[in-house]
Amino acid sequence: MSTIVSGNIQNVLTKTNKTIFVENIQKWVIAEKQLKHIAEKTKEIRELKTQTSIDICQYIQSNNLSSTKIELSDGELKIYDKKEYPPLSFGYIEERLAEIIPDKSHVNFIIQHLKDNREIKSSPDIRRTYTKK
Fold first, then answer.
1. How far apart are CA 61 and CA 69, in angstroms?
2. What is the Cβ-side half-sphere exposure of residue 45, based on CA atoms within 13 angstroms?
3. How far apart are CA 55 and CA 49, in angstroms?
C-alpha cells in the first residue's frame, strides 16, 4: 500500500519539519546556555565550600577540637580523614603488574591487550564552539 501526497502537502510537511528542526536548535542552545551558567555557579560554590572547609579544618586542628561534633538543625558536622584514590590508569596498572610479573614483555603484552580490547561506544552528539570576541 502506498501513500500519495500532493506537492502542496509535501511542502507544508517539509516546512513543518524544518520549523521543528529550528525550534529544536533553539531549545538546545537555550538548554546549553543554562547548563553552562549552572556549571559556572556550581564551580564557584564548590570553590567556596572547599576553601571554607580548609579554614574550618585548620581551626579545628589548631585548637585541638578534632573530636568535636557541631550540632546543626538537621544533623551534625565532624572532621574526618578523607581517603582519596587516584584514577586507575594504565601507568599505574603497569607499575603494579611489574611488581608481580618479572618478565617485562608479559607486562607489556597485558597492557597492550587491555588497551586494544577496551569497549568503545560511539554515538552522535552536538558540540558547541564559541567564537572569541
1. 13
2. 6
3. 10
Judge if 55 and 93 occupy the same domain: no
Task: Note down the domain range covering 39.
Answer: 7-76
Q: pLDDT tens, 76-106?
A: 988 888 899 988 999 999 999 999 999 999 9
pLDDT tens for 59-73 read 998 998 888 888 999
Same domain, 108 and 49: no
Alpha-carbon separation of residue 4 from 9, 13, 15, 60 (angstroms): 10, 13, 18, 79
**Is residue 92 domain-shared with residue 57, that is, in the same domain?**
no
Based on the domain organization, do 12 and 69 belong to the same domain? yes
Residues 90 and 72 in one domain: no
Residue appearing with cell numbers 603494579: 96
